[in-house]
Amino acid sequence: MRQVEICFSPELIHLHDLEGKIVVVVDIFRATSTMVAALANGITEIKTFASLEECRDMGSEGYLIAGERNGVTAEGFQLGNSPVAYLNNQYAGQKLAMTTTNGTLAISKSQGAYEILIGAFPNLSATVSYLQSRDQDVLIHCAGWKGRFNLEDSLYAGALAKSLEATHTSEEDGALAMKALFEKEGHNLKGFLSQASHAKRLQNHNIESDIDFCLTLDLYPSVAKVESEVVKWI
Amino acid sequence: MRQVEICFSPELIHLHDLEGKIVVVVDIFRATSTMVAALANGITEIKTFASLEECRDMGSEGYLIAGERNGVTAEGFQLGNSPVAYLNNQYAGQKLAMTTTNGTLAISKSQGAYEILIGAFPNLSATVSYLQSRDQDVLIHCAGWKGRFNLEDSLYAGALAKSLEATHTSEEDGALAMKALFEKEGHNLKGFLSQASHAKRLQNHNIESDIDFCLTLDLYPSVAKVESEVVKWI
């Protein structure tokens, strides 16, 4: 059996061995959910940036630019970090440059892996099928919140570990814990998450429709993959 | 309501604010369980050390010396990290100097807190009563395993968060997750943990009786507290 393990924060990723593994980067609220929404709605590629400045500069190279800090659209950007903004093929055919608080960092810290995927609930089953078709062990890299454990990324990790159980063992402590937590709370994701501090912070931003989208399973049949620092739909 | 939060690793403790909080340091397999066993069996005080050398030197000052690295007794030490070695008042009346892989680090990184307690299942209810008698918020600091999340420390944290629910809210994501996990798996701690990689490593050291001791609830009515870098029974 292949193995699945979870890293709960980019601050802990140096303690995990990435070599030969497929890393799935997760930032459910909202960076990786937004990437999946954008690609499923016709965005042709996504470049991610750590700094606002670098990302903003891509506007002059014909990119649509999306920038978010602490949950709100950053100054001078066309878009923030809302997945529903991309629905109905709103920006189909365009290239996107994106920077977010936690998600971009997790992607850049995953370099060195065999492959890097982007994980979100709306394409969970597609990601599962892809991982099952490959021989590599899986490491789920949660973006967390300012370096700390967060509940929604961890629950996605548990859902993925659970969905992989026919082919991948969850002996690693984090995977075992989150698989069990998903078994208990997976039927009621939104209710369970609504008790959490991060979800409460998001509710303050009036993004109820984003939260609903981010927790919706299996809308899309494709996988989001990072290649040469560009995220594409495969 | 007071708050309870969980830090899953000493590598993440810098992201938490310790000021004004009571920190409960947890290293279930086996440092904090061993401290509680030792104090409950007549050890008068415990000094903890990061380095083997400093700890070994305490032998010439009349201390019983206990040293463990990677699960086994270190060279030149009278004791390793086995809680059952202290039972039946085996070393009653003596002072203990101790160094362990993960536990000592978590204690030293908890400096700055309002108070520091040592947590273990054998005195869980006593610790709960003590925390409920105080006005401070609680931060549970899991020693983890080589900086990573581990299951037994996290489950203790969940048990403590659950036991405190009449007086302390678990809105913080880690506390919410582990409280729910303990609700699901708390009736079967040993069975659930036996699937985990760290517990499997311990099984290789033939310490079944240690594991049983470490997972036994409420043998002792007192609390272990760190004051001026010395752990005492109060």
TrEMBL record, chains A, B:
It catalyses: (2R)-O-phospho-3-sulfolactate + H2O = (2R)-3-sulfolactate + phosphate. The keyword Magnesium applies. Its EC number is 3.1.3.71. It holds the Pfam family 2-ph_phosp. It is an enzyme of class 3 (hydrolase). InterPro entries: ComB-like (IPR005238), ComB-like_sf (IPR036702). Its cofactor is Mg(2+). Keywords: Hydrolase, Magnesium. The keyword ATP-binding does not apply. Belongs to the ComB family. This is Probable 2-phosphosulfolactate phosphatase. It comes from Algoriphagus namhaensis.
